[in-house]
Amino acid sequence: MVEFQINDPSIESQWRALILFGRNSATYKFAFAKALLEVVENQRSTISLEELAKPFADSIVEHLKINDKQGNSKSSSFLDKCREFRDGRITDEELYWHTKKLGFVNVVAAFQNIHGDIILNRFYDVNPSNKKELIITDNLLKIKELFQYKNLNQEVEARWRLVETAWDLSIKPKLLEVQYDSDDSLLYISHKDILRRINITSVRDALNGYQKGKCFYSYQDISINSGDVNLCHVDHFFPHVNILQHHSNNANLNGVWNLVLADKTVNGSKLARIPHEKYLTRLYNRNEFYIESKHPLAETIVNQTGNTKEKRRRFLQNQYFIAFENSSQVKWKPDIELEGTF
């Protein structure tokens, strides 16, 4: 299992491990995750696959309207039925009937598996007396009690958009680069072979899960909901004040590798100061989580910081030296820092 999950075996961390690090051969797991979150919202103890068929299929159809490629297989009978519905060639009743028959063939068994292991605390079991019904465990229902529950659906959606965008583009991974628009707080891809900018997802939605919903510096809970007065800030770990010096040393400070989410009060106290060196290790670990999660974020970070762990360590150390040499040389720490780990 990935280090992200081993270090924190909490229910919240296990859920995120499935969404962020599980294998992606199709986007079914994201649709299934969104359907399960509806179960959590309604506090169901059991649910039939027939009942799950509607939210499951509806999510996939909505994404097919954005990106037709929703899997690595050359053909899929289930996705073909979803496309037929999208194009108005079958009714919703027909779609849900085919979903019940075809849509859950692999995803029910595979969803709770990560890197060959079943998660420690299952979120559901298949009813042994009725294979078409799931028994929902308390582990799943307890998710609603978490502070981060309100952010989980956005995280699933962001991860889905990253995966399908990567599949949809016929760009070699080595040339693929996710960029950051600070005005709109969006991640996007722009490449000469595309001839247009493709907006992917909110940067906050994409980054939050990899920080476990915590402020990068203080470990306080953060919100990624745009209407929240405590909406977290997107912070540049290495501040823009020395952008020219970093640029001359082959570093793009607007790269995903340098973006972290921070509590707005904490970020307000940091300003353009250089974080204490201990946070550099935290940044390295957070970036390695991205790389484990596969491209496009992974390929972007590898392209910008190095294709081996040692190169990436040296890259961050070099950037830290540049920042320190061109700053007041006073290392910053937040006033409050809770116990935690990434």
Q: Give the C-alpha Rg.
A: 21 Å
Distance separating the two termini: 15 Å
SS-based structural class? alpha+beta
Shape: globular
Strand order of the largest sheet: 1-5-4
* Secondary-structure element string: HHHEHHHHEEEEHHEEEHEHEHEHHHE
- Estimate what percentage of residues fall within beta strands: 5-15%
Largest sheet: 3 strands, antiparallel
Number of domains: 2
Give me the count of strands: 12
Q: Fraction of residues in helices?
A: 40-55%
Point out poorly predicted stretches: 1-6
Query: Helix tally?
Result: 15
Mean pLDDT: 91
3D structure, described in words:
The structure is a single chain. This protein is an alpha+beta fold. The chain has two domains: 3-145, no CATH class; 174-332, no CATH class. Helices cover 45% and strands 12% of the residues. The protein contains 15 helices and twelve strands. The chain has helices at residues 3-6, 11-21, 28-42, 49-64, 77-86, 92-103, 107-110, 138-141, 149-168, 203-208, 243-247, 264-270, 278-292, 297-305, 309-325, and strands at residues 46-48, 113-114, 117-118, 124-126, 133-136, 178-181, 186-190, 197-202, 233-236, 259-262, 274-275, 331-332. The strands form five sheets. Strands 1-5-4 form a three-stranded antiparallel β-sheet. Strands 6-7-8 form a three-stranded antiparallel β-sheet. A two-stranded antiparallel sheet has the order 2-3. Strand 7 and strand 8 form a beta hairpin. Helix 3 packs antiparallel against helix 9. The radius of gyration is 21 Å and the shape is globular. It starts with a helix and ends in a 10-residue tail after the last strand. The relative contact order is 0.11.
